[in-house]
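The authors assume throughout that readers already know how a fold can be written as discrete tokens. A single example would do more here than another paragraph of explanation. An entry of this sort, consisting of the sequence and the corresponding backbone structure tokens, reads as follows:
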Amino acid sequence: MVKLSDYVIQFLAKLGIKHVFMMIGGSITHLVDSSIDRDDLKMITMHHEQGAAFAAEGYARCTGSIGVAMATSGPGATNLLTGIGSCYFDSIPCLFITGQVNTYEYKFDRPIRQVGFQETDIVQIVKPITKGARFVEKAEDIFRDLNWAVNLALSGRQGPVLLDIPMNIQRALINCDGMSFPSAKDVFFDDDKTSFDKVCPLLCQAKRPVILVGGGLRRSNACDELYNLVKKTGIPVVSSLMGLDAFPHNHPAYSGMIGSYGHRYANLAVANSDFLLILGSRLDTRQTGTKPKTFARAATIVRVDVDTEELNAFNGSHLNIRMDVKEFLKSLNKCLEHKDFKAPQGWMDVLDSYKIKFPAFDPEVKMINSPNKLISRLSDLVQDDAIIALDVGQNQIWAAQSFKMKKGQRILISGGMGSMGFALPAAIGASFANPNKQAVVIVGDGGLQVNIQELQTIVRNNLQIKIIVFNNRSLGMVRQFQEIYFNGRREGTLDGYDCPNFVDVAKAYKIKAFSVSDEDEVDSKLQQFFAISGPSLLEVHISQNSILSPKLLVNDPIENQDPKLSPEELKEIMIIPVLEDEKN
């Protein structure tokens, strides 16, 4: 006989989980205690359950396997919600385990609000933002429920699951004879190759092909297959925000990030394409614009995704293929082995002209006045296999536009949830997943304050995390929105908002920190920042009026971001006809 909590921890260790992120609470004490003195699994104490959830997400993203976070009942469980939602929207496999009051203290179907202290029906709360959630009512159910949870999280379109385990179930004794432990080999995909044979002929007929990669390509571990396809064909690649690290940015075929805050040259590439192959991207309105019918309107659109519902959600595709992206690319590369298809040189010349005409930043502007230029310089200094965690806000977009991703680097982004406070704990999870790799956090003054308490987690574990704070003393992304649509009224973003001296805060945590506001010192400070052994923080003071540019406004097609081109210039650079409402 074995204590159930011991079995749960042993199950996770057999799965290959080396770190579980949690904030201690009364109803998970049995589970936490069962991890003590183990060499193969360690509990990482965070300072807020949201931080634990984001750390588990960062861990999962960087291992390619499953992340695990635990929290106590009541407020501990509900504090996980933002991180659970982030995993759900971005298809990250994580197992969330919550403690619950004893079953004899649980209300079940009784029409009362609560029986036990901190009793909360977390299963019903999280169902809309998980692939599945279960309450473990009987000790003997734990074998079935753990295997169910892991297989569900890792199969098909991946995502989070939750198990809620009452305290008396955790301490129960169970018979493990004949019970098997999990294996990653149990993971499966449901492939659909019925439409695949149509792809090669369509591609080989194309004169202006483009490949759009999303987060699904990285989740299916298909970066090498994409690289091989582009090496053979030269087809230009654009990415969504979530697909930024799927393809190296120094490759001549890389043509930028598309979307509302994307590169103008990338949006022009998609707008003028005649064949668009979309790999693992859901095409939300931040990619297509608020009028999806105008998106890639001259192209034959082929979409590949494991999620049938996502495929059906966009009506502009000519061919939908429900298939794992990696398997699709393997098959496509095999199909093209004996074909001599190359992206036409004339098309590549057009895209190169777009890049020259519409760079991400003006190289003549000083770094201290150009966050994009500073990010570009920052990307020169990070290690070739670094993990970069972006927070949410202007800092995220500046980095997405100007950080030059190398082939061995990873970038962690909260996409669908878009949660401020993501980067710091995500970098913590990434550091435990890859302890020998440099982790770099790019964050704004607003985002850092959301989970600033996790600086202590970094210090306690001596994690080699580098934190660069873009401080414009405002919540700049929403402030810019207010200035466009609300006549400059800036309540909550500038009025009523402020921030501390982050250097003083970091030093209070015993993190080496300094700031810069002088152009002549920026480069030397950056180099000093990276030369420090151990965690460090650099606060860069930038203009309070810093903006994101270009930016797509409501009802405009992606090829005409703000600041708008003149009708004459737009007509001149477009290959396909300009929309009528753009001429006026």
Q: What stands out?
A: The chain has three domains: 2-177, 196-357, 367-541. The first helix runs from residue 4 to 15. The two ends are 78 Å apart (CA to CA). Confidence is low (pLDDT under 50) at residues 184-188.
